[in-house]
Amino acid sequence: MTLYAFYGALEQGFAFGLMVLGVYLTFRILDFPDLTVDGSLPLGAAVSAVAITNGYSPIMAIVMATCAGFIAGMVTGFLNTKLKILHLLASILTMISLYSVNLRIMGRPNLTLLGKDTVVDQFTALVGLPQYMATPILFGIICVGCAALLIWFLHTEVGMAVLATGDNPQMITSQGINTHTVIIFGVGLSNALVACSGALVAQNQGAADVNMGVGTIIAGLASVIIGETVFGDRSIVRAIVAVLLGSVLYRVAIALALGLKLGAFSVTPSDLNLITAVLVVIALTAPTMKKKFLSKGATA
Which residue segments constitute the domains of the chain, with CATH numbers given? Predict the structure, then answer.
């Protein structure tokens, strides 16, 4: 893998790092299988692109995209808690609805940002580095900052309520806390992170597309599983750092796989879903295989 490809993998890993944090928040902390992310990521991209083309600053565009993602997540939480729709089905309903919403927001299937100022352009001009080097630094700073804020939040009273709701909803209900409100807020916060990620990706790629969220949940889960397997998840701080690094490892693994050539055989971007599936299988089976190997070594 070339140095340029490595920088690209870092860039993608950190760009989607916020999305991975959002997936971790719902799947691991809230124990809420949420497929809304496949719709909220392009939602963030669409809102960001439309805001920039209408004269708003790139930073304000990211803020608006984050708010839109929060609302989308709240809708999923509302469908589940108030209308008693199964969480998986509620998230699917929101996801498919967002496809039409994103088309309505952009007015077309895709929207380009060519010639428009983005946060990537502003940061590149500020630090004076080539864009392929400046972008990973910018996205890394944003991810570390958001991860630190998430760690801080989960140690507040509200954050503790979110943790307790996912771990033992009966217990937290007996303490007088409304779990419905916590779930709505938690899923909203998760999708706010995902939409913010979508805004960053759109500004980096120079375009927003209504189909750019396809496979987002798979990539997010793969990153979470890889991060937890490699770095562990014994504490909240360690788990959040692990899933963020897992996002980077996932993108590096993808870059390595796409550069693999065995004779006449070579991996193409169309094999991405297969590569992801293989990576997830390896990550899930690695702990079991490690235990078996260690037990055999101890008995030998």
Answer: 3-299 (1.10.3470)
List of residues 6+ apart from 246 with CB closer than 8 A: 20, 223, 224, 225, 226, 227, 228, 230, 231
Tell me the per-residue pLDDT of 107-151, one tens digit each, with 9 for 90 and over.
Answer: 999 999 988 899 999 999 999 888 889 999 999 999 999 999 999
Tokens of 263: 């004779």
Strand 110-112 relative to strand 207-209: parallel, antiparallel, unpaired? antiparallel
Q: Give CA–CA dist 292/73, Å, rounded.
A: 41
Written as six digits, the tokens of 128 are: 């004076």
Mean pLDDT of the chain: 89
> What 3-state class would DSSP assign to 110?
strand
What does the CA dihedral 132, 138, 141, 146 come to, rounded to 10 degrees?
-120
Sign of the alpha-carbon dihedral angle for 241, 244, 247, 252:
negative
Q: What pLDDT is recorded for position 76? A: 96
Q: What SS3 state is found at 265? A: strand
Longest Cα separation, the chain: 70
Cα 271 from Cα 274, distance rounded (Å): 5
pLDDT band at 57 (very low <50, low <70, confident <90, very high): very high
